């Protein structure tokens, strides 16, 4: 797909009778092969939600370093008409840097809601450099916003997130920034498959309350 900053790619996982579209961007350290994005793409179409995994132009071009936030926003915005072409409500989402893009642009684009997976609330070890204002732009604009955050995420643990109207924070116990769960978590009854199931169930339940139900 052409954008002003290069060719992007959208991989569609379509529901038979879609009631909404969930558009998901990837992070700065990886692509749409991330475990949480793939799990949602596999699980949600059966419940009436089409999933669109969006690869930014820098990844499609094979580059290893993500460009500036403005460039990411430009590509995402250019793709929005294609993401909204089914005529059903579109939920803007993504993981890490992709979540930041969604939060920054959702209100302007007319998204129905925002899903932020592993939102990087601050750089690791630097809580004073908070990105809370960026996150809160979506709920402040009246958009329901769900954050799904690993309990061990060095970019911000669930309990670090601010409380705000319209913002819901769901924890994935033992999960790191990529929602990887260590083997020792099994002592608490948590494993990798269970963590991914928690993510997909949490998101599906939340989507059931967003516009387009």
Automatic annotation (TrEMBL):
InterPro entries: AB_hydrolase_fold, KANL3/Tex30_Abhydrolase, NSL3/Tex30
Keyword Membrane: no
GO molecular function, one term: hydrolase activity
SUPFAM superfamilies to which the protein is assigned, alphabetical: alpha/beta-Hydrolases
Entry protein name: Hydrolase
Domain KANL3/Tex30 alpha/beta hydrolase-like as annotated: residue spans: 20-203
Gene3D superfamilies linked: alpha/beta hydrolase
Organism name: Streptomyces durbertensis
Matching Pfam families: Abhydrolase_11
Hydrolase recorded as keyword: yes
Record key words, sorted: Hydrolase
């Amino acid at each position: 797909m052409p954008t002003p900053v290069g060719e992007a790619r959208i991989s569609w996982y379509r529901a038979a009778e879609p009631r909404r579209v969930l558009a998901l961007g990837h992070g700065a350290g990886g692509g749409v092969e991330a475990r949480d994005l793939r799990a949602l793409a596999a699980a949600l179409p059966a419940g009436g939600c089409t999933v669109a995994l969006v690869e930014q132009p820098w990844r499609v071009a094979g580059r290893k370093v993500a460009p500036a936030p403005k460039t990411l926003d430009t590509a995402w915005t250019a793709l929005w008409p294609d993401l909204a072409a089914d005529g059903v409500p579109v939920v803007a989402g993504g993981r890490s840097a992709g979540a930041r893009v969604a939060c920054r642009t959702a209100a302007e684009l007319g998204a129905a809601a925002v899903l932020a997976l592993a939102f990087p609330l601050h750089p690791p070890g630097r809580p004073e450099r908070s990105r809370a204002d960026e996150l809160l732009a979506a709920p402040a604009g009246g958009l329901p916003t769900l954050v799904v955050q690993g309990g061990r995420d060095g970019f911000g643990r669930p309990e670090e997130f601010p409380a705000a109207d319209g913002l819901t924070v769901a924890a994935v116990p033992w999960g790191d920034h990529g929602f990887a769960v260590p083997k020792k978590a099994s002592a608490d009854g948590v494993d990798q498959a269970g963590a991914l199931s928690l993510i997909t169930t949490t998101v599906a339940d939340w989507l059931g309350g967003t516009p387009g139900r």
